Amino acid sequence: MPHYSKHPYLKLNHRTWCFRYRIPQGVRHAFAGKHEYIRSLKTTDLAEAERRKQFHLDLIVNKIKAVREGNDDNLINAAMYWRRLFKEAEGGDEIQSEYQNEALEEAIDTYIDGGMSALLAHAGANPNQHEVIASMPQGKLVLDYMNIVSGSKVPTTAYLDDWYSAYDAEEKTKDMAKSEVLRFAQEFPSVGEITKKAVTQWIDRRRQKGASVSTIRRGITHLRQYWRYLQQLEEVPEEYDPFAGHRFRKKNGGQVEVLPYDPKEIVRLLKAAEEKKDQQLTDLIRIAIYSGMRIEEICALKIVDVTTDRMNIREAKTKSGIREVPFHSNLKDTFKRLRKASKDGYLISGLKPDKYEKRHDAVGKRFGRLKTGLGFKSRQHTFHSIRHTVVTQLEQAGVEVSLIQRIVGHSTGTLALDTYSGGASFKQKKDAIQKISYPGIKD
Q1: Percentages (nearest 5) of helix, strand, coil residues in the chain
Q2: I need a labelling partner for 436 at 20 to 30 A (CA). Which of 42, 56, 373, 428 fits?
Q3: Any idea what DSSP says for residue 442?
Q4: Are 60 and 37 in contact (CB under 8 A)?
Q5: Cβ(27)–Cβ(71) under 8 Å?
Q6: What's residue 385's pLDDT?
Q7: Is there a contact between 100 and 106 (Cβ–Cβ < 8 Å)?
Q8: How far apart are CA 190 and CA 172, in angstroms?
């Protein structure tokens, strides 16, 4: 019979062919420190051995690739490698059975000292493999491993990275969603534990810890998206959604109501920013109190968006948000100075974007510290409260509600106005803006 060296990856052992592969040194930790991967091909026929070796060669090459890419550094990742192969296997029960047997051998070699030889010695006359494994030190790890491979105990986070990559949303939304799944998985480590009753109890616990209704609802939205992904992968029942249909009352009347600052409080905020010599924050507050613009809108303004008499908001989440906002006369000199001083093309220059390329995050936090230092500790007072202040001033000055909505970028809520009206004239908006005033503030 031919010598095994003439046949790559094959070795003849007592007339039975074996698959043999030398494991690269850098990945041996994932193979219990072994130098070689050896599996019996259970045949004396060379042609059949050549056919069967390809199965093992594909497995070992892909396994090494996974280890080098950092996807096989713990029990869950290692087991999920086999789980994916098991689910994607073509060839029916026979191939799936081979995968399962290979996974079991690997788990035994990895987690039980002495590997299969030790297991057989420990078994004695006991034919129940499950009992034998469970009775051995580290046997639970082998059983946990195989529960994942078979799908009887799929980890909640098993497909989280895949879902994150496929999730079509802004980076910040994706990060929030991933964090929500990770938080949820701390209480429900496997998908089999996730039932409607369990989710209801989880909601109750979060409410007791002070989470708002809006926070919980947002979290459930993310969790449902992930659950649907698991349904597509056929890891959870297609007809069952434990996150659907939950209703709960809003504690203490519901979401926190944002309150406006009164004009004197606006003056305090502006002067405090000036005293801190925080020019960026001072300019941000000044523009906001005379325009009602959102913090992200102001921070995103570029020099090219600002003309001699108006600010052009070119991007917004809604059609109503795209608009022209007239200058208040008290901003004329401020805009002149900012245009001249800009070094990066933005009206408020020098704001560093966060990892989501948003320029308002850091300065928004500075505003938070500023208002808290002045005694505005309630969540009812935020930067957005300035927007409420502007709306309140315009309303009290007798400006029509539809005109106020055009200025601040809200839908009028009226089909005729939103669809058929050409909108308020620039002069109408300019005249309305000039009605905003604060005691003792000048440009």
Answers
A1: 55, 5, 35
A2: 373
A3: -
A4: yes
A5: no
A6: 94
A7: no
A8: 26
Angstrom distance (rounded) from CA 364 to CA 273: 13
The proportion of the chain whose per-residue pLDDT surpasses 70, expressed as a percent, equals: 90
Give residue-wise pLDDT tens across range 225-264. Answer: 999 999 998 888 888 899 988 876 655 545 567 889 999 9
Mean pLDDT over residues 38-64, rounded? Answer: 85
Domains, the chain, in order of start with CATH, read 4-150 (no CATH), 160-253 (1.10.150), 263-433 (1.10.443.10)
Number of residues written out for the chain? 443
CB under 8 Å to 175, separation ≥6 — which residues?
none
At 84-96, the pLDDT tens digits run 877 776 556 666 7
For residues 306 and 335, is the Cβ–Cβ distance under 8 A? yes
Q: What is the pLDDT of residue 51?
A: 86
Q: What gap in Å lies between CA 410 and CA 422, rounded to an integer?
A: 15
Whether the Cβ atoms of residue 285 and residue 273 lie closer than 8 Å to each other: yes
Q: Which two tokens stand for residue 239?
A: 């007809």
Q: What is the pTM of this model?
A: 0.58
116 band by pLDDT with thresholds 50, 70 and 90: confident
Q: CA-to-CA distance for 175 and 182, rounded, in angstroms?
A: 11
Supply the DSSP string of 363-376, one letter for each residue.
HHHHHHHHHHHTT-
Burial of 252 (0-12, 13-18, 19+ CB in 10 A): exposed
In terms of Cβ atoms closer than 10 Å to its own Cβ (0-12, 13-18, 19+), residue 257 is: exposed
How far is the C-alpha of 356 from the C-alpha of 365, rounded, in Å?
A: 16
Confidence of residue 197 (pLDDT cuts 50, 70, 90): very high
pLDDT of residue 331: 93
Q: Which residue has the tokens 């000292």?
A: 113
Q: Which of 350, 355, 341, 363 is nearest to 296 (CA)?
A: 363
Is residue 71 over pLDDT 80?
A: no
Q: Which residues contact 313 (CB under 8 A, 6 or more apart)?
A: 293, 297, 301, 305, 321, 322, 323, 324, 325, 409
Residues 6+ apart with CB under 8 A from 187: 202
Radius of gyration of the chain (CA): 33
pLDDT tens, position by position, 143-175: 988 888 888 888 999 899 899 999 988 888 999
Of the candidates 355, 367, 358, the residue with the CA atom closest to the CA atom of residue 315? 358
Phi then psi dihedrals of residue 374, to 5 deg: -90, 5
